[in-house]
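Recall that a protein's primary structure is simply its ordered list of amino acids. Everything else, from secondary elements to tertiary packing, is in principle encoded there. The following example makes that idea concrete.
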Amino acid sequence: MKTVNTIAEVREVVKAWKREGLIVGLVPTMGYLHEGHKSLMDAARKQCDKVVVSIFVNPMQFGPGEDLESYPRDMERDTAVCEAAGVDLIFHPEPSEMYQDDFSSFVDMNTLTGNLCGKTRPIHFRGVCTVVSKLFHIVTPDKAYFGQKDAQQLAVIRHMVSDMNEDIEIVGCPIIRETDGLAKSSRNTYLSDSERRAALCLSRAVFAGQDMVKSGERNAGKVRQAMVEIIEAEPLARIDYVQLVDFRTLEDVEVIQGPMLAAMAVYIGKTRLIDNFITE
Protein backbone atom coordinates (compact mmCIF):
# COMPACT_ATOMS: atom_id res chain seq x y z
CA MET A 1 0.00 0.00 0.00
CA LYS A 2 1.16 3.51 -0.84
CA THR A 3 0.18 6.88 0.64
CA VAL A 4 0.44 10.02 -1.50
CA ASN A 5 -0.35 13.65 -0.81
CA THR A 6 -0.47 15.25 -4.26
CA ILE A 7 -2.84 15.11 -7.21
CA ALA A 8 0.06 14.47 -9.57
CA GLU A 9 1.08 11.34 -7.67
CA VAL A 10 -2.46 9.94 -7.69
CA ARG A 11 -2.78 10.49 -11.42
CA GLU A 12 0.57 8.84 -12.12
CA VAL A 13 -0.40 5.70 -10.18
CA VAL A 14 -3.94 5.42 -11.57
CA LYS A 15 -2.87 6.04 -15.17
CA ALA A 16 -0.47 3.09 -14.88
CA TRP A 17 -3.31 0.90 -13.59
CA LYS A 18 -5.62 2.03 -16.37
CA ARG A 19 -2.99 1.17 -18.98
CA GLU A 20 -3.17 -2.40 -17.64
CA GLY A 21 -6.96 -2.37 -18.02
CA LEU A 22 -7.57 -2.61 -14.29
CA ILE A 23 -10.86 -1.62 -12.62
CA VAL A 24 -10.36 1.13 -10.03
CA GLY A 25 -12.61 1.71 -7.02
CA LEU A 26 -12.67 4.86 -4.88
CA VAL A 27 -13.82 5.17 -1.25
CA PRO A 28 -14.02 8.89 -0.34
CA THR A 29 -13.70 9.51 3.41
CA MET A 30 -12.90 12.25 5.91
CA GLY A 31 -10.79 9.83 7.93
CA TYR A 32 -11.07 8.59 11.50
CA LEU A 33 -12.06 5.33 9.89
CA HIS A 34 -14.37 2.79 11.52
CA GLU A 35 -16.11 -0.46 10.55
CA GLY A 36 -18.57 1.45 8.38
CA HIS A 37 -15.73 2.78 6.24
CA LYS A 38 -14.11 -0.66 6.22
CA SER A 39 -17.32 -2.17 4.83
CA LEU A 40 -17.00 0.21 1.87
CA MET A 41 -13.38 -0.83 1.36
CA ASP A 42 -14.35 -4.50 1.56
CA ALA A 43 -17.02 -4.00 -1.11
CA ALA A 44 -14.54 -2.16 -3.32
CA ARG A 45 -11.93 -4.88 -2.77
CA LYS A 46 -14.39 -7.54 -3.95
CA GLN A 47 -15.51 -5.64 -7.04
CA CYS A 48 -12.36 -3.86 -8.20
CA ASP A 49 -8.77 -4.67 -9.10
CA LYS A 50 -7.38 -1.62 -7.29
CA VAL A 51 -8.81 0.40 -4.39
CA VAL A 52 -8.11 4.05 -3.59
CA VAL A 53 -9.19 5.60 -0.29
CA SER A 54 -9.18 9.38 0.00
CA ILE A 55 -8.74 10.81 3.50
CA PHE A 56 -9.54 14.51 3.48
CA VAL A 57 -11.45 16.59 6.01
CA ASN A 58 -13.11 18.88 3.49
CA PRO A 59 -13.37 22.43 4.87
CA MET A 60 -15.86 23.43 2.19
CA GLN A 61 -18.66 21.30 3.61
CA PHE A 62 -18.46 22.73 7.14
CA GLY A 63 -20.51 25.79 7.98
CA PRO A 64 -19.69 28.53 10.53
CA GLY A 65 -19.66 27.16 14.07
CA GLU A 66 -19.49 23.52 12.92
CA ASP A 67 -16.81 21.06 14.01
CA LEU A 68 -14.14 21.47 11.31
CA GLU A 69 -11.28 22.10 13.76
CA SER A 70 -12.37 19.47 16.28
CA TYR A 71 -13.32 16.78 13.75
CA PRO A 72 -11.39 13.65 14.85
CA ARG A 73 -8.21 12.85 12.96
CA ASP A 74 -5.80 9.92 13.36
CA MET A 75 -3.79 9.22 10.23
CA GLU A 76 -1.69 6.46 11.81
CA ARG A 77 -4.83 4.55 12.79
CA ASP A 78 -6.46 5.21 9.42
CA THR A 79 -3.42 3.87 7.60
CA ALA A 80 -3.60 0.64 9.61
CA VAL A 81 -7.31 0.21 8.83
CA CYS A 82 -6.67 0.71 5.11
CA GLU A 83 -3.74 -1.70 5.07
CA ALA A 84 -5.79 -4.37 6.83
CA ALA A 85 -8.56 -3.91 4.28
CA GLY A 86 -6.22 -4.44 1.34
CA VAL A 87 -6.32 -0.86 0.05
CA ASP A 88 -3.78 -0.12 -2.67
CA LEU A 89 -3.49 3.68 -2.46
CA ILE A 90 -4.34 6.36 0.13
CA PHE A 91 -4.77 9.91 -1.11
CA HIS A 92 -4.26 12.27 1.84
CA PRO A 93 -3.99 15.84 0.55
CA GLU A 94 -3.71 19.11 2.43
CA PRO A 95 -6.51 21.64 1.85
CA SER A 96 -4.07 23.77 -0.18
CA GLU A 97 -3.59 20.85 -2.59
CA MET A 98 -7.33 20.60 -3.23
CA TYR A 99 -8.17 24.32 -3.15
CA GLN A 100 -5.54 26.71 -4.46
CA ASP A 101 -5.57 30.35 -3.31
CA ASP A 102 -7.68 31.59 -6.23
CA PHE A 103 -10.13 28.66 -6.18
CA SER A 104 -13.58 29.88 -7.27
CA SER A 105 -15.45 27.04 -9.01
CA PHE A 106 -18.18 25.00 -7.32
CA VAL A 107 -20.55 22.13 -8.08
CA ASP A 108 -24.06 22.77 -6.81
CA MET A 109 -27.60 21.63 -7.53
CA ASN A 110 -31.03 23.13 -6.98
CA THR A 111 -32.81 19.85 -6.26
CA LEU A 112 -32.35 17.22 -3.54
CA THR A 113 -30.26 19.52 -1.33
CA GLY A 114 -32.86 21.87 0.16
CA ASN A 115 -34.61 19.35 2.41
CA LEU A 116 -33.42 17.17 5.33
CA CYS A 117 -29.82 18.10 6.26
CA GLY A 118 -29.81 20.85 3.64
CA LYS A 119 -32.33 22.91 5.62
CA THR A 120 -30.00 23.52 8.55
CA ARG A 121 -26.68 23.04 6.70
CA PRO A 122 -27.27 25.21 3.61
CA ILE A 123 -23.70 25.13 2.24
CA HIS A 124 -22.98 21.51 3.11
CA PHE A 125 -23.92 19.80 -0.13
CA ARG A 126 -22.21 22.36 -2.33
CA GLY A 127 -19.04 21.44 -0.47
CA VAL A 128 -19.76 17.71 -0.78
CA CYS A 129 -20.52 17.88 -4.50
CA THR A 130 -17.49 20.04 -5.21
CA VAL A 131 -14.98 17.85 -3.39
CA VAL A 132 -16.46 14.58 -4.68
CA SER A 133 -16.45 15.92 -8.23
CA LYS A 134 -12.80 16.91 -7.79
CA LEU A 135 -11.95 13.45 -6.43
CA PHE A 136 -13.69 11.83 -9.40
CA HIS A 137 -11.62 13.94 -11.81
CA ILE A 138 -8.39 13.25 -9.92
CA VAL A 139 -8.81 9.49 -9.37
CA THR A 140 -10.99 8.68 -12.44
CA PRO A 141 -12.51 5.63 -10.71
CA ASP A 142 -14.76 3.09 -12.39
CA LYS A 143 -16.78 2.67 -9.17
CA ALA A 144 -17.19 4.82 -6.06
CA TYR A 145 -18.52 3.63 -2.71
CA PHE A 146 -20.76 5.54 -0.29
CA GLY A 147 -22.57 4.46 2.87
CA GLN A 148 -26.33 4.49 3.30
CA LYS A 149 -25.96 6.21 6.69
CA ASP A 150 -25.43 9.41 4.71
CA ALA A 151 -28.48 8.62 2.58
CA GLN A 152 -29.08 12.16 1.34
CA GLN A 153 -25.45 12.40 0.29
CA LEU A 154 -25.80 9.10 -1.58
CA ALA A 155 -28.88 10.38 -3.44
CA VAL A 156 -27.19 13.71 -4.21
CA ILE A 157 -24.01 12.08 -5.55
CA ARG A 158 -26.00 9.70 -7.75
CA HIS A 159 -27.96 12.64 -9.16
CA MET A 160 -24.79 14.66 -9.73
CA VAL A 161 -23.16 11.78 -11.61
CA SER A 162 -26.25 11.43 -13.80
CA ASP A 163 -26.46 15.18 -14.47
CA MET A 164 -22.76 15.45 -15.33
CA ASN A 165 -22.67 12.25 -17.42
CA GLU A 166 -19.86 10.85 -15.30
CA ASP A 167 -18.91 7.31 -16.35
CA ILE A 168 -18.79 6.10 -12.72
CA GLU A 169 -20.92 3.51 -10.96
CA ILE A 170 -22.06 4.74 -7.55
CA VAL A 171 -22.33 1.83 -5.13
CA GLY A 172 -24.40 2.31 -1.97
CA CYS A 173 -23.49 0.12 1.01
CA PRO A 174 -25.62 -0.73 4.09
CA ILE A 175 -25.40 1.04 7.44
CA ILE A 176 -22.98 -0.64 9.84
CA ARG A 177 -24.11 -0.56 13.48
CA GLU A 178 -22.63 -1.14 16.90
CA THR A 179 -23.84 -4.30 18.66
CA ASP A 180 -26.43 -2.20 20.53
CA GLY A 181 -27.76 -0.65 17.31
CA LEU A 182 -26.08 2.76 17.18
CA ALA A 183 -25.00 3.63 13.64
CA LYS A 184 -21.21 3.79 13.31
CA SER A 185 -20.00 7.39 13.02
CA SER A 186 -16.73 9.24 13.55
CA ARG A 187 -18.72 11.75 15.62
CA ASN A 188 -19.69 9.06 18.14
CA THR A 189 -16.31 9.79 19.76
CA TYR A 190 -17.71 13.15 20.92
CA LEU A 191 -20.28 11.44 23.17
CA SER A 192 -19.89 11.07 26.93
CA ASP A 193 -20.98 7.78 28.50
CA SER A 194 -24.43 9.12 29.31
CA GLU A 195 -24.78 10.67 25.86
CA ARG A 196 -23.70 7.41 24.26
CA ARG A 197 -26.55 5.62 26.05
CA ALA A 198 -28.97 8.39 25.13
CA ALA A 199 -27.97 8.17 21.45
CA LEU A 200 -29.64 4.76 21.22
CA CYS A 201 -32.94 6.59 20.85
CA LEU A 202 -32.05 7.13 17.18
CA SER A 203 -31.72 3.45 16.35
CA ARG A 204 -34.74 2.58 18.49
CA ALA A 205 -36.78 5.05 16.43
CA VAL A 206 -35.41 3.61 13.17
CA PHE A 207 -36.22 0.03 14.14
CA ALA A 208 -39.71 0.99 15.32
CA GLY A 209 -40.41 2.81 12.06
CA GLN A 210 -39.13 -0.12 10.04
CA ASP A 211 -41.35 -2.52 11.95
CA MET A 212 -44.42 -0.36 11.34
CA VAL A 213 -43.79 -0.24 7.60
CA LYS A 214 -43.07 -3.98 7.45
CA SER A 215 -46.36 -4.57 9.28
CA GLY A 216 -48.23 -2.69 6.57
CA GLU A 217 -48.49 0.88 7.86
CA ARG A 218 -48.60 3.25 4.88
CA ASN A 219 -49.45 6.51 6.64
CA ALA A 220 -46.16 8.41 6.72
CA GLY A 221 -47.43 10.76 9.41
CA LYS A 222 -48.17 7.92 11.81
CA VAL A 223 -44.74 6.36 11.28
CA ARG A 224 -43.03 9.72 11.75
CA GLN A 225 -44.98 10.47 14.94
CA ALA A 226 -44.06 7.13 16.47
CA MET A 227 -40.39 7.79 15.72
CA VAL A 228 -40.56 11.33 17.11
CA GLU A 229 -42.15 10.12 20.36
CA ILE A 230 -39.33 7.64 20.94
CA ILE A 231 -36.69 10.34 20.47
CA GLU A 232 -38.54 12.96 22.53
CA ALA A 233 -38.71 10.50 25.44
CA GLU A 234 -34.93 10.86 25.77
CA PRO A 235 -34.09 14.00 27.81
CA LEU A 236 -30.67 14.50 26.22
CA ALA A 237 -32.05 14.40 22.65
CA ARG A 238 -33.06 17.42 20.59
CA ILE A 239 -34.56 16.79 17.15
CA ASP A 240 -33.23 18.66 14.14
CA TYR A 241 -35.59 16.77 11.83
CA VAL A 242 -37.41 13.48 11.41
CA GLN A 243 -38.87 13.15 7.91
CA LEU A 244 -40.21 10.56 5.48
CA VAL A 245 -39.38 11.42 1.89
CA ASP A 246 -39.41 9.90 -1.58
CA PHE A 247 -35.89 8.48 -1.98
CA ARG A 248 -35.75 9.62 -5.61
CA THR A 249 -36.82 13.25 -5.12
CA LEU A 250 -36.25 13.70 -1.35
CA GLU A 251 -39.64 15.41 -1.16
CA ASP A 252 -41.93 14.74 1.81
CA VAL A 253 -44.51 11.98 1.39
CA GLU A 254 -47.87 11.39 3.03
CA VAL A 255 -48.35 7.83 1.77
CA ILE A 256 -45.55 5.25 1.78
CA GLN A 257 -45.25 3.71 -1.66
CA GLY A 258 -42.16 2.94 -3.72
CA PRO A 259 -38.64 3.72 -2.46
CA MET A 260 -38.98 5.83 0.69
CA LEU A 261 -36.32 7.26 3.01
CA ALA A 262 -37.08 7.80 6.68
CA ALA A 263 -34.26 10.05 7.87
CA MET A 264 -33.41 11.92 11.04
CA ALA A 265 -30.84 14.26 12.51
CA VAL A 266 -30.79 14.50 16.28
CA TYR A 267 -28.58 16.41 18.69
CA ILE A 268 -27.38 14.39 21.66
CA GLY A 269 -25.94 17.12 23.81
CA LYS A 270 -23.89 19.15 21.33
CA THR A 271 -23.30 16.25 18.92
CA ARG A 272 -25.44 16.01 15.80
CA LEU A 273 -26.07 12.40 14.74
CA ILE A 274 -27.97 11.01 11.76
CA ASP A 275 -29.70 7.70 11.06
CA ASN A 276 -32.26 6.35 8.59
CA PHE A 277 -33.91 3.44 6.89
CA ILE A 278 -34.95 2.96 3.27
CA THR A 279 -37.92 0.98 1.95
CA GLU A 280 -38.10 -0.68 -1.46
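The two ends are 38 Å apart (CA to CA). Strands lie at 2-4, 24-29, 50-55, 89-91, 143-147, 169-173, 237-246, 260-268, 271-279.
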